[in-house]
Design a protein that fits this description.
The complex is a heterodimer of chains A (555) and B (127).
Chain A lengths: L17 H27 L4 H6 L6 H12 L2 H14 L3 H26 L4 H5 L5 H34 L7 H52 L4 H12 L18 H18 L4 H4 L8 H32 L2 H7 L6 H58 L6 H25 L7 H23 L5 H20 L26 H17 L6 H13 L10
Helix pairs in contact in A: 1-8, 1-14, 3-8, 3-12, 4-5, 4-12, 4-13, 4-14, 5-10, 5-12, 5-19, 7-8, 7-14, 7-15, 7-16, 7-17, 8-12, 8-14, 8-15, 9-12, 10-16, 10-18, 12-14, 14-15, 16-17, 16-18, 17-18
Chain B lengths: L20 H8 L2 H34 L1 H5 L1 E3 L2 E2 H44 L5
Antiparallel strand pairs in B: 1-2
Helix pairs in contact in B: 2-4
Classes of the chains: A mainly alpha (555), B mainly alpha (127).
Chain lengths: 555, 127
Amino acid sequence: MSDVQAQPLAAAASDVTGGQRGLTVALFLAFVALTLYITLRASRQTKTAADFYAGGRSFSPVQNGLAIGGDYMSAASFLGIAGIIALFGYDGFLYSIGFLVAWLVALLLVAELLRNSGRYTMADVVAFRMRQRPVRVAASVSTIVVSIFYLLAQMVGAGALVALLLGISADNDAAKALTIVVVGLLMIFYVTVGGMKGTTWVQIVKAVLLMTGTTLITILVLAWVGFSVNELLDRAAERSGKGEAFLEPGLRYATEASGLTGKLDLLSLGLALVLGTAGLPHILIRFYTVPTARDARRSVNWAIGIIGVFYLMTIALGFGAAAFVGSSAIAEQNPGGNTAAPQLARSVGDHFFGDTGGTVLLAVIAAVAFATILAVVAGLTLASSSSFAHDIYASVLKDGQAGEGQEVRVARVSAFVIGAVAIVLSIFAQNLNVAFLVALAFAVAASGNLPAILYSLFWSRFNTSGAVWSIYGGLVSAVTLVIFSPVVSGKETSLFKDTDFSWFPLDNPGIVSIPIGFLCGWLGTVLSKERDDVKYAELEVRSLTGHGAEGAASH
Amino acid sequence: MARSTTRGQAFGPQGRPPGSAEHYAALRDSPDFRELRARFRRFVFPMTAAFLAWYLLYVVCSAWARDFMGSKLVGVVNVAFVFGLLQFVSTFLIAWLYARHARSTLDPLADRVARDADARRTGRGEA
C-alpha cells in the first residue's frame, strides 16, 4: 500500500486513555495466548515434510478459504484502504477492486493446476519439466525477495501502528523497535513450531476475528445512516471538506496535477495488483494445503466470497470514517489515514453505547489489526523458509538426497534466520517510508513469477532458459525501475529526499516490467533448443486430471 | 514421441511401466483428454481476456474519463461508484460460472481420464 504508516506519525493518539490501553493490551495478550496454544497443538501433528510445508494437505475448502483470506488481507487492506477512502474518498476503491479481481486469475488459471502438479512450493511447477537447479534457484530467489519486501512493509508498519494504537509517541523508536521484535519473534515461533498447520490455524482465527469486527462496525455505520447508501455518501462528501469530488476518482491517484505520468502510474499499479496475486509465493503454497485440486478450487471460491465481502465493508468503513469522524480529524491523527478504522470504531461505539462502548470497540479493532499483521507475516516467513529448504537446500545443495527430517529441520532453521533478518532490517528501516514495498512485491510477482507459472502450465515449447529468463527478467526490471523512480529519490516523499537519481517517472514499474517478464520468458525459450515434450505431456495430464498428483497425508 | 492408441491391451512385466512417457503421451492423445483440455481452455481463456479487459476499462475510465465517472445516477451515487460495485458483482459472477462449468463439464471428463489412466496402469484396459 502506498500509504500505510511508516511515514513519521503525527503526534500520537492523545485520546488513548490508561484504561483503554489496558484493555487493548489484554486483548493482544489473549490473541497471543490463543495462537501460541494452537501452534503448540499443531506442532504435535507436524511430523513429515507434507505436514510442515502443506499442513498434511488435510484442510477443508472452508478452512483453507478462510486461511487464504487471513493470509491475504493485510493491515494495508484493512487500515490502509479504509484510510485512503476516509481521506481521499473514491480512490481507495482502486486498490480493493484490483486486489479482488486478481483472484479470478488465481481461480481460472493457477489454483487447480498448481495443486495437481506441484508438491510444496511454486518452484515445483515451474521446474517440472526443466533442469532442476537453475530454475529452482531462480524461483527461490524470487520467492525470498518478494517475501522479504512484503515482510518489511508489514513489520515496519506494525511498529508504527501498535505504537499508535497504544498511544505511545511516534518518536519513541525504542517502543517501535520492541514491537517489531515481538511481532518477529511470534511469527518465528508460529512457523518453526507449528509449520503450515500452526500458521493456517493462526490465519483462520485472524480471518474470523477480522470479518467479525469489520461486520460489526459496518452494521453500526449503516444503522447510523438508516441503511441508506446515498445518505452515507452524502454525509461523507460533506464532512470530507472536498464536496462532490470526494465521490469521484482523482483526489489521490492520477490527480489532474500529475498529468499523463499520474494516469500511466495508475494503470501500472492496476496491472500489478490484478496480475500479482497469482504470483505471490505465500498465496500459491496455500493451494497445496487441501486434499484435491477441486478443494483448491472451492477454497479459492470461498476466499473470493470472504475477501469480496470484506472489501465491500472497507468501503463502508472508509466513507463512515469520513462521515462520522471527519477527514480533518483523521489526518490530524495520522497523515496516511491508518487510524481511520480505529477512530471510527470509537465514534460508533460512543454513539450507540456511550463512552465505555467506544473504548471497548476501539480496543477490539486495535487487537484485530494486530492479529491481522501477525497472520500475514507468519505466512510470508513460512513461504520463504519452505522455498529455501525445499528448492535450494534439498534440490540444489543436496541434489535431492536429503532426508525428509533433515529437510524440515533446515526449513525451521531458515524460518528463524529469515525472521531474524526481517527483524533487523525492519528496525533499521523503521523511520523510512517503506510502504511502497507492498506494491513492489506485487509488481515482482506479476513480472517474474506469473509469466513463469503461466508459460509452464500452458506453453509446450517452454524450457529451462525461458523459465530462468522470465523470473530474473521480471524481478530485476521491476526492482531496477523502482530504484530509479521517484519512490526512492528526488521527491519530498521519497526514501532519500536529499538526492535525486531518478530517471524513471512512474512509482509503479508494472506497465514496463510485466511485458519485460513475458518477453524474456519467450525470448529465453526460443533462443534455447531444449524442449521436453514427454514431460509436458505428463504435466498436462497431471495438471488437468490430478492423475499422479500428491494425495492427502493420512495420520 | 511415441503415440500409442492401443486400448484394452494387457501389459505384462515387459510392458509399459506405470507413469512412463508412453503412458502419459497416450493419455494426452486420448479423445477424452483432448476434449477436457479444449473445454477447459475454451472457458478460461476468453473469460480471462474478458474480465481483464473489463477491469482495465474501469482503471482507464478512472484515469482518463473523469467527467463520465462523475456523472450522477441516483442522488449522489455516480457512475464511478456503480462501476466499482459492478466489478465486485462481475467477479462473484465469473467465480460462480466457472465453478458451475467445472462441476458439470470438466470434473466428469477429468474423472473419466483418471479412471482410464488407472486402468492403463494396472494393465486391465479400460474400466
